[in-house]
Design brief:
- With 402 residues, the protein is an alpha+beta fold.
- It has 14 helices and 10 strands.
- Helix content is 54%, strand content 17%.
- A hairpin with a 2-residue loop joins β6 and β7.
- α4 crosses α9 and α12 packs antiparallel against α13.
Amino acid sequence: MQELRVNKLRTFLSLFGITIGIFCIISVLATVNSLEYKLQNDISALGTNTIYIDKWEYDGGPDYPWWRFVKRPQPKFEEVKFIKEKSTLAEAVCYFNSSGISLQHENDILNGVAVYGITEEFNRIQTINIAYGRYLNETEFLRGNPVGVLGYTNAEDLFGKPERAIGKTVTFNGKIVTVVGVIEKQGQSFVGGFDYDRSLITTYRYFASIYDMKSRNFDPFIMVKGKAGIPTTALMDELRGIMRQTRKLSPKTEDDFALNDVNLFSQQVSSFFVSVNIGGAIIAALSLIVGLFGVANIMFVTVRERTSQIGLKKAIGAKKRTILTEFLLESAFLCIVGGLIGLMFVYLLAFILSSVMPFPIVISINIIILALALCIGLGVLAGIIPAFIAARMNPVVAIRTK
């Protein structure tokens, strides 16, 4: 610490390189990891261990053969009952349909609202947290009662405070829906999916009484969640056989439906971010290399300045490992101080970015441990050659050096 205080310019130059290096690599890793965490959470919101039965395949891409799927029949409400009866691996099965609407309460109108018509087991596949009121009950599903659960943002826009929506009525397509619950605020999703904040969830039977279900303007699908411990591949194989059976497809006829595994999206995201992390680490490591050489140069100068001190220490009995350890600890200490300053700047950056970005920047304990390990490793690498030079000095020659 005395050396740091006495040689302020040298200290600044030593710490600056390491500070910038740690700042770059940790900020990159923290941002990328936070983004991956957000995407994985958005994907898991689609359902864990869940298969979507649709006429469309969700692979996408520039060469997506939409003409193969456009004439396929849409999943039918009746097929849900058949799947429940035949499947031994499914824990929950739900039919889902949706439409864009304008929602009205008295003189206030909201555009761009999504109404979801769902069956009983939707909340066993999706996590629906209710902030105020309650969720739809079994009787309302069976009778198709005109009740619904409103999204948090919709409730705010229409009633000022979300809790005021409970018991009120809203109107769309000339039909009245009584609000029995308000969904907890979800936030923006990066992968599409269900926009709960701007939605109205109602029973499928009531939804079907409003719209013509034979219209091709709808794209319904069936959601099937597997039992705990059941591989999605086994669930897909069973569902393929059940769907072919219910649609009476001959063995030579190809499937006229798609089985989309949500877990594949998560795996694709993970593999993508592995490459992103490697690329980001390589780019940020360049800054650390610059800092490494900076600390090494400073340590060479330090050894040169303290040559006579080294000779005196060796003359009174200091061993080589003592001198070696002294300079390695000093080099590592320099890097740790620089790294801590870099981490402080990363926390400041994370605080600023979290307030403007649609997801929070989180610095995990693993990243902090990585930063400290990098600092110690860099300190040892930067100081190893100067420390060896100091440890091998002849004490007589060193004492005479001015």
